[in-house]
Specification:
The chain is α/β, with parallel strands linked by helices. The chain has helices at 35-38, 54-63, 82-89, 103-113, 150-161, 178-187, and strands at 6-13, 16-23, 72-76, 93-98, 121-123, 136-142, 162-172, 191-196, 210-215. The relative contact order is 0.13.
Amino acid sequence: MSAYLTRLLDIRIGGHDFQIRALKDLQQFSDPDGAADQAGISSALWSLFGQAWPAGRIMADEMSHHDIAGKRVLEIGCGLGLASLVLQRRGADITASDHHPLAESFLMDNAELNGLPAIPYCDLRWERPDEALGLFDLIIGSDVLYERGHARLLAALVRRHGQPSMEVLITDPGRGNSGAFSRAMSDLGFVSTEQRLRFKEEDTLPFRGRLLKYLR
């Protein structure tokens, strides 16, 4: 039996209902083999992957109608995999990635819950090159600019795994690190735009949450 508790969420995206297995709350923690500790994930951060955050729902909604024809797509920091599930349902060429020890098992479970084929998954550390991963036409991530250093790491990942002509989409709740990322992306030849969005019902104007788009 797992040492953590889960719950089932019903989430409607793009006119379709998805059932998502998530951690019961932020107090859940289990690392009996020390895998999270070895990955540098503290007990305080351990449960964050297992929640259906507003930024993830915004990205999933965007992926329900975004142009994916002929594109190879990479989701970084997939967590429970909601955006990847939406893309898989649409028949996209999607690879999900994360570095949490349980992300893959939750992703596979959620695909099965929704009657979808297994989604290709990569245990991806942003600071370590992975030549086998290849190049992508679209890279997406939800609330992945969590810490100041993430802007540099993510830009380097895009440089390694992005096609010469490509797009990057990031949903950001307004943590203050998007400016550094946008500057790094400009250095890589990307043109950026942003759309301010309501991430939560209680959000008021001017919205802090935003959908960041980078095109090269």
